[in-house]
């Protein structure tokens, strides 16, 4: 099946970090050339004009939660790196201790009389002197390096404890941010944000991960005359590359939500614009697209997805979203709303 149809739920095979870097390059050039951004007339922008049900409090709560998650992941990576450095330093320290013990043994068994005899018997006294100086240098350099390692091991132990404390604190912060995010979602949904069964797994290819910085609305929006953040433009391009090429519109002037910040797009279920409730192939297209955004949330930096009276939030999954206006635009039954984090 293609990106415009749904598929039964399936388990996605894990993919390596480096495999993603080659995926787009493997697509035929003709296929990439065929990717276009479909722009409909201004009269078809009613979904954006009606949309505004996602509160700023939810947007801010989700962003704070994702930032807290990032900080926690960074601290845990620092901890992992530190543990590796500790293992390496302890191994090097043990090896140096062995070498120093051997050096001390050799030096202690070589008396001044033996050294003098060796010098007198040597055909080239300079060679003998050089050898003795080298032996002394190696002993001193090993001792210096061992002292450095001992100091570093002490520093690592202190840093380990600090990191452990920081991680514990950050886990508390992350839990608080998660609770605030869920509370905002419950306030948003008239049903109280009850768990919902979201779309099944998508059959579209995986997305390439976003790389680089995404600070501000700095990129031209190909669907409007507005702007997008680099991360949002990447998500839009990836969706089009894998086959989701129906009508889409992103930026609009707004004092709330992500559209006015260049961090949101509305993907119509119908080929030509925002119509009535999606059904048949149009519904399958929306299901497939919403599932794809969820599956690639980490790669794309998804903040949340809304589709067919349901909202997906990071780690909490799909929730009911029945507090809209009872028509296709605000109920999101004719388009998939995608919000991207900053």
UniProtKB/TrEMBL annotation:
Pfam families: VldE. It comes from the Bacteria. Signal peptide: none annotated. Keywords: Coiled coil. The keyword Coiled coil applies. Residues 179-225, 323-342 are annotated as: Disordered. This is ARB-07466-like C-terminal domain-containing protein.
């Amino acid at each position: 099946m293609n990106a415009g149809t749904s598929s039964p739920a399936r388990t996605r095979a894990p993919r390596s970090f480096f495999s993603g870097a080659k995926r787009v390059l493997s697509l035929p050039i003709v296929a990439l050339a065929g990717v276009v951004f479909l722009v409909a007339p201004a009269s078809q922008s009613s979904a954006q004009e009606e949309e505004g049900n996602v509160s700023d409090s939810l947007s801010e709560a989700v962003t704070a939660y994702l930032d807290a998650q990032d900080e926690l992941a960074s601290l845990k990576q620092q901890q992992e790196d530190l543990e590796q450095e500790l293992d390496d330093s302890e191994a090097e320290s043990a090896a140096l201790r062995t070498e120093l013990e051997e050096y001390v043994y050799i030096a202690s068994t070589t008396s001044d009389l033996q050294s003098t005899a060796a010098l007198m018997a040597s055909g080239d006294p300079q060679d003998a002197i050089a050898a003795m100086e080298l032996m002394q240098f190696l002993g001193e350099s090993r001792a210096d390096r061992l002292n450095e390692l001992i100091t570093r091991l002490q520093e690592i132990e202190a840093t380990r404890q600090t990191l452990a404390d920081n991680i514990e604190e950050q886990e508390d912060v992350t839990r608080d941010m998660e609770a605030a995010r869920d509370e905002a979602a419950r306030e948003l949904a008239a049903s109280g944000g009850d768990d919902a069964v979201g779309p099944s797994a998508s059959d579209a290819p995986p997305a390439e991960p976003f790389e680089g910085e995404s600070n501000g609305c700095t990129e031209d929006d190909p669907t409007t005359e507005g702007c997008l953040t680099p991360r949002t433009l990447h998500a839009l391009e990836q969706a089009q590359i894998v086959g989701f090429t129906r009508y889409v519109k992103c930026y609009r002037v707004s004092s709330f939500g992500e559209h006015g910040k260049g961090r949101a797009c509305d993907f119509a279920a119908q080929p030509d614009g925002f119509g009535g409730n999606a059904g048949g192939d149009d519904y399958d297209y929306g299901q497939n697209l919403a599932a794809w955004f969820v599956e690639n949330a980490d790669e794309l930096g998804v903040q949340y997805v809304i589709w067919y009276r349901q909202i997906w939030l990071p780690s909490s999954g799909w929730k009911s979203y029945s507090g809209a206006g009872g028509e296709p635009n605000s109920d999101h039954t004719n388009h998939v709303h995608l919000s991207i984090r900053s």
